[in-house]
Amino acid sequence: MSYGFQMVEKDYFVYIKQDNDKYVILSLYVDDILLAGNSKEYVLAVKKWLSSNFEMKDMVEVTYILEVKITKDHSKKLLTLSQKPCIRKIFERFNMADCKPMDTPISKGQTLSLDMCPKTLQELDRMKNVPYSSFIGSLMYVTRPDICYAVEFVSIYQFNIG
């Protein structure tokens, strides 16, 4: 990539092009590109350069990317991201569509220990039928800051590694 883009050091798939007070952020995922910037004209110039160098289809205003719904309120200068449909699918897949939400997934001071893991052959056999790892793995792709600690917290116990 060129045209003045600099790769973000911590993320090899995000690039930034800046010219004084104008900037464009380019996020790349396989064959999808998402552009965001603070100047419509600057974003359009980048799109023009991209389309002259690569075969591409301009979707204009994005509403979904990687199961994230993007909503813009231009009057309030507000951008909202939501994964409700994705989360709903995960909970339906694991027969938890009717579960009750909690404000805090883990209470302060909550601990888990290896003593809580299944130990007997009967307990281990029963747990084989619980899609615990699949559920935790599905939640790892949900961009919800309010659950990321809880998901990490319980994931370390899925293989009795505590």
From TrEMBL:
It comes from Acer negundo. This is Reverse transcriptase Ty1/copia-type domain-containing protein. InterPro entries: RVT_2 (IPR013103). Residues 2-107 form the Reverse transcriptase Ty1/copia-type domain. The lineage of its organism: Eukaryota, Viridiplantae, Streptophyta, Embryophyta, Tracheophyta.
